[in-house]
Write a structure and sequence with these properties.
alpha+beta, two-stranded antiparallel sheet, 3 helices, disordered C terminus
Length: about 150
């Protein structure tokens, strides 16, 4: 197994940096065997195009360890098959104006869109829980029922 040391800073593009300059800087931080794919000139990434590019190169099992916005984009595109979720024994809260993101960001789900999950496995290590779910494709509700006012 090969270990790659990365700095704590994510490899984000710097202001004024061209995609080519960013790729050159990123290349210096990755093992030689790593391949960098360019999928377009935009700073944003189409999740379906990224998965298509990986699959066209023979990759069938793809693990994404992105954050809440990446997960939101993948869920919105219906590209999440499984979710591995770790529950830690800490209670954390958020204020109304808090900046800590939720599990999924960038997509409005309930009540109009539902993404169901089915528990496949549950493991425990101490007080930590490691859940593995199958994830359904997003389903849009055609009717939004509203209770009558009392």
């Amino acid at each position: 197994m090969r270990t790659v040391q990365m700095t704590s800073q994510p490899p984000l593009r710097e202001n004024g940096e061209s995609p080519e300059q960013w790729i050159d800087r990123l290349r210096d931080r990755l093992p030689q065997a790593a391949k960098i794919l360019t999928l377009g000139p935009d700073a944003s990434l189409d999740p379906a195009a990224a998965l298509d590019a990986l699959r066209s190169r023979g990759h069938r099992l793809i693990l994404c360890e992105g954050g809440p916005r990446t997960l939101g984009a993948l869920v919105a595109a219906g590209l999440v098959d499984e979710l591995f979720l770790t529950t830690s024994p800490l209670v954390a809260g958020r204020t109304e104006n808090g900046s800590r993101p939720a599990l999924v960001e960038g997509i409005e789900l309930l009540p109009a869109t539902t993404v169901g999950c089915e528990l496949l496995t549950l493991r425990r290590a101490g007080s930590h829980l490691f859940s593995r779910y199958s994830v359904s494709r997003p389903e849009r509700s055609h009717t939004l029922l509203r209770p009558e006012r009392l």
